[in-house]
Specification:
The protein contains 14 helices and 15 strands. The protein is α/β, with parallel strands linked by helices and 401 residues long. The protein is globular and about 65 Å long. It has helices spanning 7-25, 30-37, 41-53, 120-136, 175-183, 194-205, 264-268, 270-276, 286-298, 302-326, 336-355, 358-361, 375-390, 392-400, and strands at 28-29, 57-60, 74-77, 82-89, 93-100, 104-112, 143-151, 154-155, 162-164, 189-193, 214-219, 223-229, 232-233, 330-335, 365-368. Helix 4 (120-136) runs parallel beside helix 5, helix 8 packs antiparallel against helix 10 (302-326) and helix 13 (375-390) packs across helix 14 (392-400). The strands form four sheets. Strands 6-5-4-7-10 form a five-stranded mixed sheet, sandwiched between helices. A five-stranded mixed sheet has the order 13-12-11-14-15, with helices on both faces. The protein has a three-stranded antiparallel sheet with strand order 1-3-2. It holds the Pfam family ROK.
């Protein structure tokens, strides 16, 4: 007969659950925590006392209260003391942030990345250098409890190896291991696909909060996707779930970097839009070039309008397929797809009407990313904090040790 959870297991779970409430929800009163967690007041008091003693939260009187009687203490995350490093490696940029408990971005660095092969030593060296710069500026009592990176490519769940990345020219790169070695913090670096982590970010802190089933579509040079199903990130058996950019929407269509033809990425990505608008080449690339097409269409440029219309039809067909298969409550457009969707929403909706089944599209909401260019970094930070939220005291003890 299998034994039930021990008292220590229950305590560990409750500590993590309480810290998660404060981390995601911000300052929360003891009374609210009692109601949300379904625990009695004395248990909540004991849990908050443990987390306060560990330096993960602090308790203080509410700034304002309109109620008579003794006010309930407010529990706040120690955002300035406990932090993680979040990294983002995209085709065009490198970004690093120091993110405090509670999701507060305390410091941030960015650099343009030339579109070239995935040079592991060069990339990890640059990222670690930014992290060291930020760490030198922290107070002596601060503690780093984790690190994670978002990468525009396929990441093997078991070991954080970047196994493929057509737009990064990456293959079997031990990215997490090498970045961890260069950081020298004695902490493992978790690695995830950028679109998956952006989906996690929008679900945790963006437009998809409280939405249990959503699809996030991320546009950069290519197209990526992240799927939240039943409130959980759908990662797949080996971690490659969500590669919706390589769903074929036009058999025999444009060649894709993955080796196939007619993928959503090939028909909707940056190059497809710029070529359709007659703007590909001559140094025009990246988010600014995409925005320029959308702005030209807004000003009445017929060629730009026709390009967006064509791209919007393929995008809408891809979304219709995803809606039929996954029945999400919300589809979120992020990265360059935010601008593309805003410029082609009519075509996207027309394709949904034509190709998505009525019950699936009936209550569907189409939204743009609330976190914008920060979505992938925020998602990486949440991945780094996952270990802390699972076992707060153990992780903090290791970090301080």
């Amino acid at each position: 007969m299998r034994a039930g959870p021990s008292q220590e297991d229950i305590r560990r779970h409750n500590l993590g659950a309480l810290l998660r409430h404060v981390h995601l929800g911000g300052p929360t009163s003891r009374a609210e925590l009692t109601s949300k967690m379904g625990l009695n007041r004395s248990t909540i008091m004991a849990l908050t006392s443990d987390l306060t003693a560990a330096g993960l939260v602090r308790e203080e009187l509410p700034r304002e209260t309109g109620r008579a009687g003794r006010p309930s203490l407010v529990v706040r995350p120690e955002s300035s003391r406990v932090y993680v490093f979040a990294f983002d490696v995209g085709p065009d940029r490198l970004a690093v942030a120091r993110v405090g408990l509670g999701g507060v971005i305390l410091d941030r660095r960015e650099a343009v990345r030339r579109r070239a092969a995935f040079e592991l030593d060069e990339l990890t060296g640059a990222l670690a250098g930014f992290a060291r710069q930020m760490r030198r500026k922290t107070r002596a009592d601060t503690v780093c409890v984790g690190a994670a990176a978002a990468v525009s490519g396929g990441v093997r769940k078991a070991d954080g190896v970047v196994t493929f990345g057509p737009n990064l020219k990456a293959e079997e790169a031990p990215f997490g291991e090498e970045l961890g070695r260069k950081l020298g913090l004695g902490l493992p670096v978790s690695v995830g696909n950028d679109a998956n982590l952006a989906a996690l970010a929008e679900h945790s802190r963006g437009v998809g909060v409280a939405v249990r089933d959503l699809v996030y579509l991320h546009g950069d040079v290519g197209i990526g996707g992240g799927i939240i199903a039943g409130g959980q990130l759908l990662g797949g058996h080996d971690g490659y779930g969500g590669e919706v950019g390589h769903m074929v929407v036009n058999p025999g269509g444009r060649a894709c970097g993955c080796g196939s033809h007619g993928c959503l990425e090939a028909e909707v990505g940056e190059r497809a839009l710029l070529e359709a608008a007659g703007r590909f080449g001559a140094g025009q690339q990246g988010r600014d070039a995409v925005r320029a097409v959308v702005e030209a269409a807004d000003r009445g440029d017929i060629v730009a309008q026709e390009a967006l219309s064509r791209i919007g039809e393929w995008l809408g067909l891809g979304v219709a397929n995803l809606v039929n298969i996954l029945n999400p409550e919300m589809v979120i457009f992020g990265g360059m797809l935010r601008e593309v969707y805003l410029g082609s929403a009519a075509q996207v909706r027309t394709q949904l009407t034509l190709h998505a089944m009525g019950p699936q599209r009936e209550r569907l909401r189409l939204r743009t990313s609330a976190l914008g260019d920060s979505a992938t970094l925020v998602g990486a930070a949440e991945l780094a904090f996952a270990h802390v939220l699972a076992d707060p005291l153990e992780v903090l003890a290791r970090a301080n040790g």
